[in-house]
Design brief:
Rossmann fold; five-stranded parallel β-sheet; alpha/beta; twelve-stranded mixed β-sheet; 2 domains
Length: 343
């Protein structure tokens, strides 16, 4: 039986000690961060981390991000920390930025997918930080969903996927950002953006002028071993077939209308994800927001709602790739398995 702990203010924080004791004993706890809900276990406990992979049905070669509550812990969990990492930590931690570094010997291989690197971040969420502090150990935590499905941005999403499979779900309300953290590889020279997220490429370039972008962000899934989550396997995906339409607004609308007519003749139930509030002749229309921040916050919830609506096809409008748009398009393309039409 999974226990649900509802936390809405600091007077409820006493409940976090219950969850922390479960982490200490090798159990699994789903908890909110500022990005999405994470499925946490003691990062230094081989058996506990193994349970994460089993519960999520996650491939063992897909690395897990380790969450810390004290910036200095990075030196215990990793080695060869470059000097410019300190500037990034000072500016962006706590926050949605994950750093990939050489791992220390104390970190089990399973936590890092048998790699010599470790992905570390310090979340910007009081519940998450309190849980890590009370547990007294770094917490390994991928998103708290079944592998491949849209990431959870509310406790209800976690309940849908993992209730009865884990020990505790901390219900801390909806997450603030709605998409996963930015990941950069600091073991490469120059550093490389592996996954776009809440900290934008433009923000990072101010500190890392030579920062590169890994081709998997805009291209196909990796076939070789990935050093960051979100690179190798289908992620963020609804059950329905999905297509993303990119291009100038007028052309995008025309193409979507064409597809709607084609699929209606095939008796398909069609869902549209729109950022423009344009009226389409579809079965389900979800307005996801106009600003990048609102689109990011609502994206995964909307994909899950489309599954609830039992649509056969999801057609999503693309967005511009500047700023947070790069992360949004990364998630949309991967959710559709790169089924993208440029118009």
């Amino acid at each position: 039986m999974t226990k649900i702990l509802k936390i809405r203010n600091e007077s409820d924080f006493e409940k976090i000690r219950i969850a922390a004791s479960v982490i200490k004993k090798g159990g699994l706890v789903a908890f909110p961060t500022e990005t999405v809900y994470g499925l946490g276990a003691n990062a230094l406990d081989v058996n506990a981390v193994k349970r994460i992979f089993e519960v999520k049905k996650r491939p063992l070669d897909n690395p897990i991000i380790v969450h810390i509550a004290n910036k200095m812990e990075i030196y215990q969990l990793s080695r060869d920390v470059p000097s410019y990492a300190k500037k990034l930590i000072k500016k962006f931690w706590p926050g949605p930025l994950t750093l990939v570094l050489k791992k220390a010997e104390i970190v089990p291989k399973i936590t890092c997918a048998n790699l010599d690197t470790i992905a570390i971040r310090m979340p910007d969420n009081k519940i998450a930080l309190t849980l890590i502090k009370e547990a007294g150990v770094p917490i390994a935590a991928p998103s708290a969903n079944l592998a491949g499905k849209p990431s959870p941005t509310s406790a209800q999403h976690v309940i849908q996927d993992l209730y009865g499979k884990i020990d505790i779900i901390i219900d801390g309300g909806p997450t603030r950002i709605g998409i996963e953290s930015t990941v950069i590889n600091l073991t490469a020279s120059p550093p490389v953006l592996l996954r776009p997220g809440g900290i934008t490429f433009e923000q990072l370039r101010k500190f890392l002028p030579k920062l590169g972008i890994h081709p998997s962000i805009k291209g196909e899934f990796l076939k070789e071993h990935a050093i960051s989550p979100g690179m190798k396997y289908r992620h963020y995906a609804p059950s329905a077939e999905m297509v993303v339409i990119e291009g100038e607004h007028r052309n995008v609308r025309r193409k979507i209308n064409e597809l709607v007519q084609i699929y209606k003749k095939k008796k398909k139930r069609i869902g549209i994800i729109t950022t423009s509030e344009f009226s389409y002749d579809a079965d389900v229309i979800k307005f996801i927001g106009k600003t990048p921040a609102s689109i990011a916050k609502n994206l995964f919830r909307t994909l899950r709602e489309m599954d609830d609506e039992k649509v056969d096809l999801i057609i999503a409008e693309g967005v511009k790739e500047d700023g947070l748009g790069l992360a949004i398009m990364n998630r949309l393309r991967k959710a559709s398995s790169f089924n993208v039409i440029n118009v």
